[in-house]
């Protein structure tokens, strides 16, 4: 298989940008040099990189200083927040989530309900629907819901919720509102104040093009003072160098969610990607994605593939999911695409394509040609006409 950078359709997974390999290599070489030096200057450098990572994320989501920190991943970030809430916030009430959330979050919530004393209420998609509708979320979102974790864009269908409408309803119900922004952060514009939410979580993968382990947790400053993170340590203090074991106090801002020595390597490795992202024309990136997405939708319609993603641009993220009919058919089609040098994937019988900054229009049209040939070959081999 020949690697084709312009044929990269995996922005729902890892994410690539021009010159990524070189920039990441330079950053890691610099870090290795600093960390290996026979002096005591390592920590100022490393903490500076972590601070830059946090500041670049804050700028992206419009978050104020002292409201954003690092975590390993989205699941950990959700746990950090929920375990830090006052005991009476969740106990005896409900936590609401859509069934098409990232499964890892649902696994976590299922276990947390036992210890934190809430009832997990999962909103299911209607029969035949490919995503959980906003209307059904609202229908099950009553005043007994203490907290709702909203999935901004679903990883299974690329359905994008009407966040303003959901948050407005949640405010009427008096609920805490968190948003998992992973599947569209770095592509679609997002602000923690428009509408105002209580917390947000994301990784730095996918459209952000960063590295694993570089998660982000935002907590509304108005909520931070009520939180008492159970996982705490020397970095949870206003002065991390306080060694008096009898005078521990939480830092007044998001730093209270830190604990022991932070894992800085993922943040430092992701800084080059965040710098690149901060300098691009984001409106142009969205237009490019929509152009290529339109080409793929038209091709799928011509082939009779079922689109599992909303057709309206405002109702979807940047990914497109297509139903192929069976897991075997999806694997066969994907094998043809991979053999031609295109990077895509499948999940069960679903083919997933996510064009981004590195994906070209010419490569997209070439992928369509390969897709058509593969689709017809698979149909012929299965006896379908």
UniProtKB/TrEMBL annotation:
It comes from the Bacteria. One of its GO terms (biological process) is NAD+ biosynthetic process. Residues 58-335 form the Aminotransferase class V domain. The keyword Lipid metabolism does not apply. One of its GO terms (molecular function) is transaminase activity. Keywords: Aminotransferase, Hydrolase, Pyridine nucleotide biosynthesis, Pyridoxal phosphate, Transferase. One of its GO terms (cellular component) is cytoplasm. Gene3D superfamilies: Aspartate Aminotransferase, domain 1, Type I PLP-dependent aspartate aminotransferase-like (Major domain). This is Aminotransferase class V-fold PLP-dependent enzyme.
């Amino acid at each position: 298989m020949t690697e084709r950078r312009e044929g990269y359709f995996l922005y729902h997974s890892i994410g690539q940008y021009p010159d990524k390999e070189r920039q990441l290599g330079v950053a890691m070489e610099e870090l290795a040099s600093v960390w290996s030096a026979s002096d005591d200057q390592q920590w100022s450098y490393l903490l500076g990189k972590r601070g830059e990572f946090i500041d670049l994320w804050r700028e992206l989501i419009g978050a104020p200083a002292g409201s954003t920190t690092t975590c390993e991943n989205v699941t950990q970030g959700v746990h950090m927040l929920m375990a830090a809430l006052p005991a009476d916030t969740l106990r005896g009430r409900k936590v609401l989530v859509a069934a098409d959330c990232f499964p890892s979050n649902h696994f976590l919530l299922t276990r947390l309900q036992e210890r934190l004393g809430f009832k997990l209420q999962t909103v299911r998609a209607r029969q035949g629907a490919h995503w959980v509708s906003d209307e059904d979320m609202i229908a099950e979102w009553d005043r007994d819901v203490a907290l709702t974790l909203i999935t901004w864009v679903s990883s299974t269908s690329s359905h994008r919720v009407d966040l303003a409408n959901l948050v407005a309803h949640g405010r009427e119900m008096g609920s805490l509102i968190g948003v998992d922004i992973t599947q569209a952060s770095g592509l679609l514009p997002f602000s923690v104040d428009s509408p105002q939410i209580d917390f947000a979580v994301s990784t730095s993968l996918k459209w952000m093009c960063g590295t694993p382990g570089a998660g982000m947790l935002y907590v509304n400053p108005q909520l931070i003072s009520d939180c008492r993170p159970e996982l705490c340590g020397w970095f949870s203090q206003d002065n991390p160098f306080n060694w008096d074991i009898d005078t521990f106090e939480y830092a007044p801002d998001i730093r209270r969610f830190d604990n022991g020595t932070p894992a800085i390597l993922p943040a430092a490795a992701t800084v080059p990607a965040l710098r690149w992202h901060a300098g691009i024309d984001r409106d142009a990136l969205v237009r490019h994605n929509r152009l290529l997405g339109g080409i793929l939708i038209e091709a799928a319609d011509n082939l009779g593939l079922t689109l599992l993603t909303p057709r309206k641009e405002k109702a979807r993220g940047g990914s497109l999911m297509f139903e192929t009919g069976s897991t075997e058919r999806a694997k066969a089609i994907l094998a043809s695409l991979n053999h031609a040098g295109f990077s895509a994937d499948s999940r069960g019988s679903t083919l997933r394509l996510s064009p981004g900054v590195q994906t070209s229009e010419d490569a997209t049209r070439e992928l369509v040609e390969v897709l058509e040939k593969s689709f017809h070959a698979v149909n012929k081999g299965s006896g379908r006409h």
